[in-house]
Amino acid sequence: MLACRHEITVYILRCSDGSYYTGLTKQEIEARVWEHNAGTYDGYTAKRLPVELVFTETYDRIIDAIARERQIKGWSRRKKEALIAWITRPCRNCRNEDRSGLSERGGRPSSFEAPAGAPQDEGGERARPASTGGGAAGR
């Protein structure tokens, strides 16, 4: 018998007031963003509509997604914006127009090293692009 695998998406939304909401979800990200914009749940984004999806990372293991969500939630606004900008800016050495493909499917090769200029976490380690999800309000 095969185990059922679910992808978990960590995501960042930009709210109408300019704040960020970081969350994670097991459902399709488009459906989750729709729920936020429809005001389906009473929470942080309900009074800050509409919201716009600005970042996603996908994980195979819930524990990894939760850890990443918590990490991002602990970041300053400036650091979140650096992550969003880094993941979406054009890459001269890539075949794709941007780095968004790096954030698909939980990540990157195990040897992935983020280049200079990528946002760093408090320990001086560079943040690595990952995939998307939903959860509690960001800072």
From TrEMBL:
Family from the record: Belongs to the UPF0213 family.
- Region: Disordered; residue ranges are 94-139
Q: Which parts of the sequence belong to the GIY-YIG domain?
A: 6-82
| Protein name in UniProt | GIY-YIG domain-containing protein
User: Where is there biased composition of kind Basic and acidic residues?
Assistant: 94-107
> Which PROSITE patterns does its entry note?
GIY_YIG
InterPro entries referenced in this protein's UniProt entry, alphabetically: GIY-YIG_endonuc (IPR000305), GIY-YIG_endonuc_sf (IPR035901), UPF0213_domain (IPR050190)
Q: Which organism is it from?
A: Rhizobium etli
